[in-house]
Give the backbone structure.
Amino acid sequence: MKTVTLNNGVEMPILGFGVFQVPPQECEAAVLNAFEAGYRMIDTAQAYYNEEGVGHALKACGLPRKDVFLVTKVWLTNAGEEKAAKSIDESLEKLQSDYIDLLLIHQPFSDYVGTWRAMEHAVKEGKVRAIGLSNFYPDRFVDMAEYSTIKPAVNQLVANVFSQQWDAQAEMKPYGTRLMAWGPLAQGNPELQDHPLMQRLASKYGKTPQQVALRYLIERDIIAIPKTTHFDRMKQNLDVFDFELTSEEMQSLRALDRPIDFRWSHRNPELVRFLWNYDKNFNPKNQAE
Ligand SMILES: NC(=O)c1ccc[n+]([C@@H]2O[C@H](COP(=O)([O-])OP(=O)(O)OC[C@H]3O[C@@H](n4cnc5c(N)ncnc54)[C@H](OP(=O)(O)O)[C@@H]3O)[C@@H](O)[C@H]2O)c1
């Protein structure tokens, strides 16, 4: 597996396995399958409500802890120095680990500055190896990068052939912050499968459009975390290191970039409200009560 070195010297795999929307009761099995397929980096979050499943898989897999790279994220409702610190301890407990490899602020809202202070403190305490951001668009990203003592190691943004984040990547460069792609397969958008350019490149290399999409990110040095619950697709999504796109092909793929749909923009007040109410509406604990 190709790895990248973060701005604090920590090494991480360039491809990992994301578990957003993997139901808590299915998460352990999915992560065990992912380990079997060859993944060594798992991306979860407090707001996926499946950190326990990841922790169970980590215990059951038999892999040495140092061979697995664990990523999790602090949710909005845990924002602020004190609450975030407590939530980091809760995540560690759920993940059944003494440390988190990479911890991110999930959303650029609420008291994320206080959250960052708690995260910097967790690094000093040895509970976290690297810290970063998620969904911080260039203005807020620069604000945090300037504020922070420890510069963000990554910024996780939606990034795929239709949403390429060139400007965001350029803003991160001076801080040594790497782009980490969520939604690298355009979240299952059938356009990715059906697009004539994706089809043509897939057939040229004997790959699938999804593999071409992942290769495009890797060639841009972007860390990616595709999600699937199918074992064959887990293996397929890892099998992207035996071909290279030409510079002309990279250019033609660049032309697929388009502005983000405002409905999903972090500048859309409706989305911000949705995220503020996310825990209330989606935390299985709240559903049970
Ligand atoms: N930071 C954030 O705010 C944020 C937001 C969203 C996601 N994430 C992270 O990013 C990860 C990935 O993003 P995502 O899950 O939203 O989207 P994604 O990985 O781009 O796409 C997942 C979709 O693609 C399908 N798929 C996967 N592999 C495939 C293949 N080889 N061929 C055809 N279809 C395939 C999956 O279906 P099946 O499962 O049925 O195979 C699923 O519907 C998440 O799991 C999570 O860890 C972070």
